[in-house]
Amino acid sequence: MNTYSSKLLEQAVNELSRLPGIGRRTALRLALHLLRQEKEEAESLGNSLIKMRNEIVFCKHCHNISDNEVCDICASPKRDNSLICVVEDTRDVMAVENTSQYQGLYHVLGGIISPMEGIGPNDLNIGSLVKRISEHETVEVILALPTTVEGDTTNYFIYKKLKDFNISISTIARGISIGDELEYADEVTLGRSILNRTPFFV
User: Fold this and answer.
1) Is 48 helix (H, G, I), strand (E, B) or coil?
2) Which domain holds residue 87?
3) Of 30, 84, 98, 131, which sits 20 to 30 A from 44 (CA to CA)?
4) How far is CA 105 from CA 40, 78, 96, 129, 192, in A?
5) What DSSP element (H or E) covers 135?
6) What are the CB-based long-range contacts (under 8 Å, 24+) for 34-37?
7) 67 within a domain of the structure (yes/no)
8) CATH number at residue 13
9) Are both 28 and 105 inside the same structural domain?
């Protein structure tokens, strides 16, 4: 157990070590690094984190994180409003955008169905997806969820909710290996998986 010469340092290490993937040693190294920087740099970091937490909102249409009530993607006149790509979270939006192979809109679920983790359909943004499709001229919904059991379960649940609408429902091609998360796929593979998407079959 580390003995700290400063309670303030210990408090900073405790807070940093709560971040995902940050152990106490790494947290200590980061805290000491900040101490070596000019005060303005540390303050800039702190202020940017506070500003992010206080001012970022979720787009009222797609639930992606945004600086405004409607995100830049939903607000862009260059996007194809007839296409909606359903993803697990914001990281997946970023991954698909990096491929430059998709010009439609998104719908961020905020997770996937996982009974083991106590996450059910009502915990996700599925109801707003159904409402969105019922109110707009959607032609195709692309299910771009992780190729895991939980992802497939969520795909099937969404399919059942949407199957009576006059739309195409497709899923990304299995160029993504079984069990893979979208954010870890390389851009070429993910781009091809979007372009070579296939109809969703049950």
Assistant:
1) helix
2) 78-199
3) 98
4) 39, 10, 11, 12, 18
5) helix 127-135
6) 35/9
7) no
8) 1.10.8.420
9) no
Query: Hey, what long-range contacts does 123-129 have (CB within 8 A, 24 or more apart)?
Result: 124/154, 125/63, 126/157, 126/158, 126/161, 128/63, 129/84, 129/86, 129/158, 129/161, 129/162
124 lies in a domain? yes
- Whether the pLDDT of residue 145 is over 80: the answer is yes
In one letter, which amino acid is 187? E
- Rg of the chain taking only CA atoms, in angstroms: 21
What do you get for the CA distance between the two ends of the chain, in Å? 54
Distance CA 32, CA 26 (A): 10
The whole-number pLDDT of residue 11 equals: 95
Q: Is 51 found in the same domain as 82? A: no
Write down the mean pLDDT value for the chain.
89
